[in-house]
UniProtKB/TrEMBL annotation, chains A, B:
Keyword Lyase in annotation: no
Name of protein: Sulfate transporter 3.1-like isoform X2
Subcellular location: Membrane
Residue ranges annotated for the STAS domain, each copy included: 473-596
Primary gene name: LOC111455889
Location, primary (coarse class): membrane
GO MF entry, a single one: secondary active sulfate transmembrane transporter activity
């Protein structure tokens, strides 16, 4: 294509751009609708393996799709069993203390925490896709459940009703999850940005820790609210009620748990030490109480299903929607068996992964271990002091406050950091529900702002090339006299078309001011580089018409460069190509600039007055 | 840059890409924050004229900004007055019948409709920017007000309370509008797409027409609901109550109004005929009733502030936020003077424009004409039959049902058409509020879907050039052996990063399947063209890391081409450039492909095993 001085040959010389900016071949509406639906709901094409298969095979594949155990079950061998046995017992040692602690968080009888680590893992082992996910109750969901149910029914006064509500809520949560999965609407969770999740989870973890102050300090009366101010007020207004024995014991166990965690991080080979620590604390604490005839009896207890993260480590794929169906079914069935809300807590799955699990059989092993505990060991837990459970919860929650991620956000994208902090503050200073709503709303607002204020930039010519780039990114790029080259960096929708019109006109105003001040040749052409405009809607097309008219009135000619397939289609249907003239749409910015330069140097006067009369319209 | 066979010189030969894909010079955070805020809230830079002006001038400019009359008032002359007089009287002839009709829609005393065409236009003349906007009550807002207030207070039983509620509602509507304008949040209305507005307005107009069936058929009892089913049921269950005299009279006047409208459209010179028609009908109808001693006494209005559309015709700029402040003030002050919700109806402004108005003084003339009517002519309206008012309303509403726009939407963008129909159906079959909510939600969902499912395309090389374009748009583009070139057509955010990861991996899978089937050389490089990626956030950067790892495990090398300024900044801060290697980021797709070709033809084996050992890393 030569250099920037390329002289554009006229039609008489046989010159014509080698390739015209093409309007793509038309596609029947049904076909493009089918494609759109496929991209929206089936981006990973999960039915690809079903193509060209006999009917019997399709049935088998279908069964395997919903019950993966049908696929990996027959291939199971004793070598895998050995690894799964070890990891299963390891996570069972976590499941038991966490189960009873988190059930306490939800104001439910602690035995439910154990049930919930028995039935649901069995269901998941049949239907789930992740080899590493360890299923059980989570702190944040338990807290949420306790807060929301507690707003309507007092657990102490109406235990049976409360229980039934909890199971019903779990059932419907399961129905909702399974429906989302079946309707392939799992992508909805994509709308929560990572920054939001970090802030929300950190806030929820903080709130859970604050709640444990009741157990650690041995207080009887405590606020029902979860926000920081209420909790601190409740704590510090009862200083005389603090029980130093609880406090000392609690801090002691907490220190023990944190030290084992730190040690396990430094020496990953000894992960099992931090895994065994909670159960050890429970046993120790129960023994202590039993031997000391301590009065406090009874048992007074987040996670993100992280199957995909572990799949990433171990290099296999997880279909998010399929997982949701599995987890939803798990909850629906579980709720019929006195289990409450379960999912796959990250921390427990991390332990499972480190313990070397090979398949979901680790969940089966854990379930069996929990069953044995239920049958033989429950009397032990009558003596477990609350402080131990509180320490276990605090130690688990501290791991969820991901300040490393927050610092990383601050460094890379300060707006994302703001989003994170806002979600955190919403949870800690208001309530978990308000924090969640704030998190979702901020995420969506952020998205809308992205769309509503796309970037526009001025392009300049990199010396000795036909490459045009952003003058801010490449300060050595020169501008071309008489031509203003703008790039629009996003699809053009109703949400940003008004803004774009204002901004483009302002670019033209500023350029004309600059030219007036510097005495350069007057502006005649405005080239719009459409490479980054992925799509355009009817508002966008109207906006282009308006800009064309405004520019025409100012004696300027609008030129388009490199519009994509979708955009060309829409511009064509919207009759804009007719109105602008197909000859003013070029394949590259270089061609557009060359054509304009040719006309500029041919000394043709104001070309917008009567387009039909101008001879070069045949070019 | 030559052709596609360009051999990339090695470092030894002194070859190096002329321009490296550059990381832009760093900008202090405060400066970039200031720029972002300016782009979001002041895209049209309204304070540009204030730069470099002495203090006294700034005060004058400030006064002119809020009270444009200060600017155009001193330049007023008798020539302008003549045009404004004619147009003012014309729109007054519309204002009077429409005012009393629309007040009836809102269940308010008809005289309020006249007050509302008196005070508010005077305020607007002082503060508004549009020369063509004719201010007054609108049918849709009146209907909404009647429906919403009527849900709480019965206008017949509690007229005083109802009245006070109406004024209070108007006052707060004014406060809200003015605040939006002052806080520069006017861009919020951009989030309602044109398709949504067409559907919503069409539905609202249909609902208003349905309501008029009561007046036309002379029914006493009528449903309070507004949806189609309730209204038809109410109408057809009282067939015996229909008064044929009302029906005949109503249809007669309606025919008269529609004929004059049609005639005015065909011969625009006679626009005043259709403008005078409503007032004529009122006078005729009142005379008829008076002479016939008809029993029905008493007196039983939409529009979009279209100042900007007319500004477009007459080539001057309107600052949307400033207009909102003007209209908000108009309502706040008006509510203290027994006026209810007013704005600038499109139909009335169209008449104003056609009548040749020159400045906002046309509003002043209209106000004066209305005042004279109030002082001397109100006894006339006691005799105005409801059927006439109903006909006037129906004839005005039919103009709001923009089926041309709907057909255009069907042709250009079928999804937009669906949005339009959904908003229409929501209003007609449920209620105006539900229809509005549906309209807003669908608009936002459409936006979110745009963002969540960006296009990705395969690029091919146009023969005899270094241009790479979409193979679907340019079927003659060839693909390059061993290299897969993908273009991502939108900014990468949390909302679409999961999808993009799935889709890119799927493109790679499909390409590898195709290669296996056709026996071509194996895939070694995946070039991602980032020209259209305007921005990237932390989720996007994580997604790139994940893709890089997945590709590396499959023996493929990831290469980036033409990342923009923002993207380079973020990739740098997110340490991705370090992790990928800056030498694998090229300025153009052509350079990237040339570099990969060079390596392919140098017959170097699998280069991802140990990058440090490979000699060409110095290139």
């Amino acid at each position: 294509m030569g250099n920037a001085d390329y002289v554009y040959p006229s039609a008489a010389e046989g010159g014509e751009s080698l390739h015209k900016a093409a309007i793509p071949p038309p596609q029947p509406f049904v076909k493009s609708l089918k494609n759109s639906l496929k991209e929206t709901f089936f981006p990973d094409d999960p039915l690809r393996q079903f193509k060209n298969q006999p009917a019997r095979r399709k049935i088998v594949l279908g069964l395997q799709y919903f019950f993966p155990v049908v696929e990996w079950g027959p291939r199971y061998n004793p070598g895998l069993l050995k690894s799964d046995l070890i990891s299963g017992i390891t996570i069972a040692s976590l499941a038991i203390p966490q189960g009873i602690s988190y059930a306490k968080l939800a104001n439910l009888p602690p035995i439910l925490g154990l049930y919930s680590s028995f039935i649901p893992p069995l269901i998941y082992a049949m239907m789930g896709s992740s080899k590493d996910l360890a299923v059980g109750t989570v702190a944040v969901a338990s807290l949420l459940m306790g807060a929301m149910l507690g707003a309507d029914v007092n657990a102490a006064q109406n235990p049976t009703l409360y229980l039934h509500l909890a199971f019903t809520a779990t059932f419907f949560a399961g129905v909702f999850q399974a429906s989302l999965g079946l309707l392939r609407l799992g992508f909805i969770v994509d709308f929560l940005s990572h920054a939001t999740i970090v802030g929300f989870m950190g806030g929820a973890a903080t709130v859970v820790c604050l709640q444990q102050l009741k157990g650690i300090l041995g207080l009887t009366h405590f606020t029902h609210a979860t926000d920081l101010v209420s909790v601190l007020r409740s704590v510090f207004s009862q200083i005389h009620e603090w029980r130093w024995q609880s406090g000392v014991l609690g801090c002691g166990f907490l220190l023990f748990l944190l030290i084992t965690k730190y040690f396990s991080k430094k020496k990953p080979k000894f992960f099992w030490i931090s895994a065994m620590a909670p159960l050890t604390s429970v046993i120790l604490g129960s023994l202590l109480v039993f031997l000391a005839h301590a009065e406090k009896h009874g048992v007074e207890v987040e996670g993100i299903a992280a199957g995909r993260s572990f799949a990433m480590f171990k290099h296999y794929n997880i279909d998010g929607n399929k997982e949701m169906v599995a987890i939803g079914t798990m909850n629906m069935v579980g709720s019929c068996f006195s289990c409450y809300l379960t999912t796959g807590p990250f921390s427990r799955s991390a332990v499972n992964y480190n313990a070397g699990c090979k398949t979901a059989v680790s969940n089966v092993v854990m379930a069996i271990a929990v069953m044995l505990t239920l049958l033989f060991l429950t009397p032990l837990f009558y003596y477990t002091p609350i402080v131990v459970l509180s320490s276990i919860i605090i130690s688990a929650m501290l791991g969820l406050i991901d300040y490393d991620a927050a610092i990383h956000l601050w460094k890379v994208d300060k707006f994302d950091f703001l989003v994170c902090i806002a979600a955190y503050a919403g949870v800690v200073f208001a309530s978990v529900e308000i924090g969640l709503v704030i998190a979702v709303v901020i995420s969506l607002l952020r998205l809308l702002l992205f769309v509503a204020r796309p970037r526009t930039l001025v392009l300049g010519n990199l010396p000795n090339s036909t490459v045009y780039r952003n003058v801010e990114q490449y300060p050595n790029a020169d501008n071309v006299p008489g031509i203003l080259i703008l790039e629009i960096d996003a699809p053009i929708y109703f949400a940003n078309s008004s803004y774009l019109r204002e901004r483009i006109i302002r670019w033209v105003d500023e350029e004309e001011d600059r030219i007036k001040a510097s005495g350069e040749s007057t502006l005649q052409y405005v080239v719009l580089d459409m490479s980054a405009v992925g799509n355009i809607d009817t508002s966008g097309i109207s906006m282009f018409e308006e800009i064309k008219n405004i520019l025409t009135r100012r004696g300027l000619k609008m030129v388009l460069a490199n519009p994509g397939a979708e955009v060309m289609k829409k511009l064509d249907k919207g009759k804009f190509i007719e109105s602008l003239g197909h000859e003013w749409i070029y394949l590259t910015v270089a061609e557009a600039v060359a054509a304009c330069n040719y006309r500029l140097h041919s000394c043709k006067p104001n070309l917008v007055t009567d387009e039909k009369a101008e001879p070069w319209n045949n070019v």
